[in-house]
Write a structure and sequence with these properties.
Layout lengths: L3 E5 L1 H4 L9 H11 L8 E4 L5 H11 L7 E4 L3 H5 L4 H17 L8 E4 L15 H22 L2 E3 L2 H4 L18 H19 L1
Parallel strand pairs: 1-2, 1-3, 3-4, 4-5
Helix pairs in contact: 2-8, 3-5, 5-6
């Protein structure tokens, strides 16, 4: 039975959606439907977490590897709280090293997801949306570059997240977080990489 660990924040725990709508849970279900023997995902993620808070959360839970696949999606709260890109880069590298270690030091079993762009959501109305989008892009440039350096997989969900500007069904009732429908699209984006990792 293969094991999968998902690390992140509200986007990974699926704030505002049912448990079976969380993207790691949907991804695991899709993989099982395709014949993979995969346990329910372990998830270490809390709404509002920044990179340092995720690192502390991992330390507290102390997950026991090796996992066959680890996903990492983190950084939106660093951007939201106005934390520096330099700090993000340093802490993201540390998280990436932890993720790789949890696979038994197999970088090819780690998948980084880009940070979605919340500037298009109703929650961002009245804020400087262009600034938010530019900052999200800057943070994603960092996590993409570090993923490449570490030789891990990278899945870019940000362009799809921007569809929420014109499709209200992609956002939950809180006007900020992705709906199960958006997560379903992320699963389709991540599926080829997950299959590559687990096969």
């Amino acid at each position: 039975m293969k094991r999968y660990l998902a690390l992140g924040d509200s986007y990974t725990i699926g704030h505002g959606v049912a448990e079976d709508e969380r993207w790691p849970v949907q991804l695991s279900a899709r993989l099982r439907d395709m014949g993979l023997r995969l346990a329910a995902p372990d998830i270490i993620a809390v709404n509002g977490w920044t990179t340092d808070e995720l690192a502390a959360g991992i330390q507290k839970v102390n997950p026991q590897g090796p996992y066959d696949m680890v996903s990492l999606l983190i950084g939106v709260n660093n951007q939201y709280r106005g934390r520096s890109r330099k700090e993000y880069q340093q802490q993201f590298v540390g998280l990436l090293q932890q993720a790789v270690a949890l696979t038994g030091d197999t970088p090819a079993h780690v998948m980084v997801l880009s940070i979605p762009d919340w500037s298009v959501t109703p929650f961002a109305a009245g804020q400087d949306q262009a600034k938010i989008a530019a900052e999200i892009d800057a943070f994603n440039a960092i996590n993409r570059e570090e993923a490449q350096k570490a030789a891990v997989h990278y899945v870019d969900v940000t362009p799809h997240s921007r569809h929420a500007a014109h499709h209200g069904a992609l956002i939950t009732q809180d006007g900020l977080h992705p709906s199960g429908e958006m997560y379903k699209a992320w699963v389709e984006l991540a599926l080829p990489t997950a299959l590559q990792i687990l096969n």
